[in-house]
Amino acid sequence: MFAIKVFIMKKFLFLLSLVFFITACETEEDPVIEREEVAEETEEPAEEENQQVETLDLGDVNTQEIIRFNSEKLAAQQYEGTLDGQAITIEKFNAIEYILVIPGDTSLGKQEIKISGIDDYVLSVTISETTITNSAEEALEPFFDNISAFEESINPASEKGANVLAILEAFKKNYQTLSNDGKMVLAKLYLANKSFMDDTVLDDYESSNNDQLAIVGKYILSVTTFSTATVAATIDPELISKSGLVAISTIALYKSYEYKDQLSASTLKKVDIAINSIESSLSTQNEDNILELYNNENEVFPFETRERAIISSDKNDTNENLKDFFESFSTFNERLEKLNSAIQFVDDEIWFSNVSLFERDFFPDSAQVEKMPANQTIFYASEFTISDSRINLNNVSFSDGHILINASYADQNSTENYLDTFLEFTYTDEFNELEGKFAVRLHKNYNYKIQFIKNPNYGEIVPVETLSNRDSYTAPNFVRHYYRVFLDNEPILLDNGNEWSNVILGEVPTSADTLTVNNYPIYIRDATNDRVITINLDLTFTNEAYAKIVNKKFTIEGGNYGEPNGSIVKVKFNDNGTYDTYSKDGTFIREGNYSFTPLIDNYGWLDCQDYVFKGRGIAAINLPGAGSGGYWMFYADGQILAGSTYGCMNQYQTTHISEGW
User: Which of 161, 352, 520, 643 could form a disulfide with 154 if both were Cys (CB 3.0 to 4.6 A apart)?
Assistant: First the structure.
């Protein structure tokens, strides 16, 4: 037996489309709010003047059961009716449904509900007794256990939480004072509506995730439950069962508050998108707010959103999900007034606990707009176009909080040095529909140049080679390179305002083969102009050090102040990342691990107090435990130096490394 009968149910908002996504019902009974059943309507001839009386058959019901139905014949907010000579109230629940409660002392069998003021329409029910096979206390034990479990989830420090706990405490205290007959009334209410009442207390409307749309769905379901219980509490004529329904309503109210607060804490509304900190919807060209692109070049910019929490004016939003949400929010506040009346009534009549009432919920009139790094979900919800026929938009992609844009001249023979246009976008998600545009200047020529330099930490900046975009360059693989950048032949500041920076080019060597990579991207932050640019080079990486190291033997000899002292260890590097050490006489000592590391500069110095320039580095390896400062550095002129100060020949302890043994 279902806890509440639902007749001719239409889709309420978008609940039923969300129900399998959101609701995780563990009971064997279907959740009451989801049930659909078509009531039977019959027409009976009147005994006098052949008046046609239409009957809506609500089917089998139990005493004290909450019935939820709809009918095209009813339109008013509330009707008074009679059932078995007793006055009952029928109240509108939502735009299409009504609720009534079957009294506990109604005669059993086939009965008609006559509605005041409507002579040609009646409701028909077949009533059975709600029976209890054990004591009222035993029947109600799971109900009170559920309430105790729910109370553990309440935050007593919040005003709403404290008020809910006070109401539940007043209800439980009053229950202890009831006679057996009074407890039986409450027990029958529980058994007649068990699925509904259990789900109200225990159901968290679980979903596979807690994204914003899922939370909205949870809110609407909780408001639906709250409304059902509140209307039933308002119209139930039995004082004891009314108090039980007030307790149930209060629990559903708390859950509604919680889901609404979760939404209030999130920046659900997207108000704009920003590229390179430039917000969209610019109506005029402004050189300080232009995205500068270069013909057929990849340009990378920070990608952000501008977001805020929901505010009161969002009730006028055209987004369907927001409209559904605010319809439930309005329903919540309407039902809140009824719940307060019911709370006040039962408190005055039987609780005598002076519990507080609840204030209407609200959203603020304004909210702070926050800058948020965009993620891949935001990017995929966006669509970018350039409608200018002079320009081709070749690629827009996303990576690690940045958007990459590549555009080119449609006519590569154009004599225009630059073209001004707009990058248009649309953005759509479950709660937002945005559109805007960014001012763009597409330059014909790429005027950035990169200049590789000697390590500038120990002396003046010494240029090694200056390259334009798409130039070719040969460099040792997996080595650190220092550089500075020019725009229109003028140096610019990099990163956080430095004149130079460094980058590791290449990848961990795996063979002695030369590696060629065309369009190798070097991402550079132009701090002078506050933008991220890309310089692409056609690089050839040499792995000559790999050929010198792997499967080769070396001799390590200790020394003092640059003079060898005869203490020798022999090392052999294997091709599996291990090395073997031997004593001077060839006795095996132990095995260790080594790896290539970029701890060497393409053109570097060795910190030996007098900062000796050592030339072009081609590789470095890390080999802890080999007694040589932890790593070795290999140079193009054949030098092999130990790490730290062991390679400094003016130190007390020095290390001398040579090939072979």
Answer: 161
